[in-house]
Amino acid sequence: MRGGHQMCIDVHSDTIYLLGGWDGSRDLADFWSFNTISKQWTCISRNTEQQSGPTARSCHKMCIDPIRRQIFTLGRYLDPSVRTAENLHGDFYLYDIESSKWTLITDDTSAMGGPGLIFDHQMAIDVDKQTIYVFGGRLLSGSHSDGDRNNEPVLSSLYSYHIPTNTWKMLRNEKRDTDLKSRVGHSMLFHPKQRCLYIFAGQRCKEYLNDLQLYEVDTDRIKTINDGTCKDIARVPSAGFTQRATMDPDLNEIHVLTGLSKEREKSDSIQISLWIYKIDKNKWSCVYSNDNTGDLYWNRMQNVEPVPRYAHQLVYDHVKKVHYLFGGNPGKDNSLKMRLDDFWALELCRPTHESLLRECRYLIRKHCFEEMTKTRPVAALKYLQTELFSTVDHSDTQKKQEFQLLPALLFKDGNEDDDLSLDRDAETSQHFTARTKLFDSLVKYFPDDMTQPKGNIIDQISLH
Questions:
Q1: How far apart are CA 421 and CA 211, in angstroms?
Q2: pTM of the complete model
Q3: What is the pLDDT along the chain (464 residues), one digit of tens a residue?
């Protein structure tokens, strides 16, 4: 059980690596691998410090070079009570997968021109140019207030680390440059084809962000895609931190699994939603959201979907198109030390145009059948056996069972619903309500620019 751990995935060897974390009482120094084909965990080390590797830690970051089979890890959180002059240095480690050997690159990154000891930052690697990018996070110092979780944080800048020459470079200065706001709890992804970093959301002091910016690594330019002023939370992920993001460079998509947000600071309302950002179209879509709360519901669903959480980890196999989620903090006020050790795989099943067309036809014809049963039951039966039957996916057990229950409507007494059902105005009103409901169920299959606004129409008005 843990939160604040780190994971990375090697899609070439179908292997996920997991390092450290916090189990609710102490930091961990164990190192594991998971083979996604055999579904087997392997403990590489119970204590990496004993193999000249990192000490126990949480809130660090890790990235992998799958070509050269190297893993890099940087940063950690230290409680103010254990900070000393000796341990407040940013150590930086490399793990060589082939030789199973740890190497300490440096015990003080700031002395090499890199960041100091940081946590809640982000790392991304440009494999082709052998360059690691590090952005944001909180700087720790000997002061009990500097960088502490409950005080005004000192934030880190944007750096690059060139692996072959072992050199750090500051690309943006947090105190001087204003085109990129430093932050914590954000997401940062490298697009290998566009050769840019995508930076999204996070928290800056007391400000919650939901902006989206990109940094062009070859031209050293910042571009703001979304400045975070959009008020319609139905169109973009809500402002917040602890979200987890992955990228599919082939599909040109960013996937964001939300965690704590500005609207959901209370632990009893932590909720998870999954968003997809289509880079080419500059468009967000929410593909999953569950607003249910309470232990009773989630105990019932514990083997169906992940309980809402934060401080978890999410990695993505962009070849097989599968996400993997592990651990985290469920945020229970009555169990503050509780951490999770569940492990989930998520595969996004995208419907084809043919299946969407079939579903729309089914909904429309099902509604036609329901209207016909009230006035023309014989014609409705024939319609059910022919027109409606042809739109049902009989290989789908749920759809098949739903279709098999429809004939019962032919024997339903219309007076059960309304003793005055023969009144023409009431009948018209009934049809209007049902058809409006049908329309609402159909428009979810159409682009936003072809449907009415989902949010409050007042939010669409620009105030200057």
A1: 53
A2: 0.81
A3: 999 999 999 999 999 999 999 999 999 999 999 999 999 999 999 999 999 999 999 999 999 999 999 999 999 999 988 888 888 999 999 999 999 999 999 999 999 999 999 999 999 999 999 999 999 999 997 655 444 555 678 999 999 999 999 999 999 999 898 899 999 989 999 999 999 999 999 989 888 888 999 999 999 999 999 888 765 555 788 766 678 999 999 999 999 998 765 554 454 456 788 999 999 999 998 888 888 878 888 889 888 999 888 899 999 999 999 999 999 998 887 888 899 999 999 999 888 889 899 999 999 999 999 999 988 999 999 999 999 999 998 988 998 999 999 999 998 765 544 444 445 565 567 788 889 899 988 988 887 778 777 666 666 565 55
In three-state form (DSSP H/G/I as H, E/B as E, the rest C), the secondary structure along the chain is CCECCEEEEECCCCEEEEEEEECCCCEEEEEEEEECCCCEEEEEECCHHHHCCCCCECCCEEEEECCCCEEEEECCCCCHHHCCCCCCCCCEEEEECCCCEEEEEECCHHHHCCCCCEECCEEEEECCCCEEEEECCEECCCCCCCCCCCCCCCECCEEEEECCCCEEEEEECCCCCCCCCCCECCEEEEECCCCEEEEEEEEECCEEEEEEEEEECCCCEEEEEECCCCCCCCCCCCCECCCEEEEECCCCEEEEECCCECCCCCHHHCCCEEEEEECCCCEEEEEEECCCCCHHHHHHCCCCCCCCCECCEEEEECCCCEEEEEEEECCCCCCCCCCEEEEEEEECCCCCHHHHHHHHHHHHHHHHHHHHHHHCHHHHHHHHHHHHHHHCCCCCHHHHHHHHHHHHHHHCCHHHCCCCCCCHHHHHHHHHHHHHHHHHHHHCCCCHHHCCCCCCHHHHCCCC
Under 8 Å between Cβ of 237 and 210? yes
Strand order from edge to edge, sheet including 322-328: 313-317, 322-328, 340-347
d(CA 390, CA 90): 65
Helices 424-443 and 353-375 pack at an angle, to 10 degrees, of 170
Rounded to whole angstroms, how far apart are CA atoms 32 and 342? Answer: 15
